[in-house]
Amino acid sequence: MYWRDRHSHLRGLRKISVNPAVWKMICIVAGIALILVVVYFGPIFLAHQQGNLSAVDRLKATSDARTSLAAVVTAAGLAIGLFFTARTFMLSRTGQNTDRYQACIKQLGDECLTVRIGGIYALEKLAQDAAWTRQTISDVLVSFICSNTKAGYLSPPADIQAALTVLGRRAPGVPLRPLNLSGAILTGAHLQGAQLKGAQLKETQLQDAELTDACLQRAAMQDAKLPGADLSNANLKNADLTNADLRNAKLYQTDFDKATLSGCYLAGCDLSSARNLSESQCADARLTDSAIPPSRMSETSS
Q1: Please, which contacts does 275-278 make with residues 24 or more away whose CB atoms are closer than 8 Å?
Q2: Closest CA to 121 of 173, 161, 177, 180
Q3: Which domains does the chain carry?
Q4: In this predicted model, what pLDDT tens digit does every residue of 156-212 receive, in sequence order?
Q5: pLDDT tens-digit profile of 220-272?
Q6: Any idea of the CA torsion for 113, 114, 119, 124, to the nearest 10 degrees?
Q7: DSSP code, position 245
Q8: Contacts of 167 (CB under 8 A, 6+ apart)
C-alpha cells in the first residue's frame, strides 16, 4: 500500500509541467543574481587575499577590482547580446526567405503567364540573396521546364524561356549540380552565353537554338537534336556528341577540343573555322556534304 501511494504521488509530479518561458525567466533572474553576487563579493574576497592592507588600501583595492570585474561583465553581456541579436536576425531572415520561396512556387502554378514569369525571376533574386536556396531553385526550374515543354512550337513559351535564361546565367563558380534537361523540347531556345557545363542534354531537342558563346564543356549530348542550331564560339571541350544531330549547324569558331563525335551528324556544316578539331575526332563522324578543307584537317591533326 505504501509503495502504491508513493508511486501514484510520483505520477502526479510527472504531470506537472512548467512553461518554457517561465524556466527561461527563472534562469535569467538566477543569472543576474549570480552576477551581482560575484561583482559585489568577489572584489572583497580578492582584497583580503592581498595580505595585510590598511583599511584605505583595502577599500581602494576592492573598488578597483569591482570596477574591472564590472567592465568584464559588461563586455560579456554586450557580446552575448550581440550574439542573440545576430541569431534573431538570421532566423528572421531565413523565415522571410522561406516565405518568399513559397510565394514564388505558388506563382509558378498560376494560370496567368505574367504571374508565372514574375515567379521565375523572383526565384532568381531569391537565389542571389540566399545561397542555401540555389540548388533547390535550380531543381525546381529544371522540373518546371521538363514538365511543361511541348512539341509543335518554333520557340519555347515565354515562361519556359524565362526559366532557361535564369538557369543559363548561373555563376560559373557556384558549386551546383549540372543541369539535367535530357529529353526536353527546347526548339528555338535562346541560350546565348548559357553556362551549361556538364549539363545532361541526352536526346534534348535544340533545333534552331541560339547557343552562341555557350559553355557546353563536358556536356552529355548523346542523341541530342541540334539541326540548324547556332553554336558559334561555343565551348564544346570534352563534350560527348555521340550520335548527336548537328546537320546545318553554325559552327564558326566552335571549340571541339577532345569532344567525342562518334556517329555525330555533321552534314552541311562548315567546319573550316572550328577550333581544336582533329582528323581522329572526325574519323567516326558522319561528314556528308560537310565543308572541311583538307589543309584544315591536316593542321588540326598535327
Answers
A1: 276/237, 276/300
A2: 161
A3: 109-171 (no CATH), 179-302 (2.160.20.80)
A4: 999 999 999 999 998 766 788 999 999 999 999 999 999 999 999 999 999 999 999
A5: 999 999 999 999 999 999 999 999 999 999 999 999 999 999 999 999 999 98
A6: 110
A7: B
A8: 138, 141, 142, 145, 179, 194
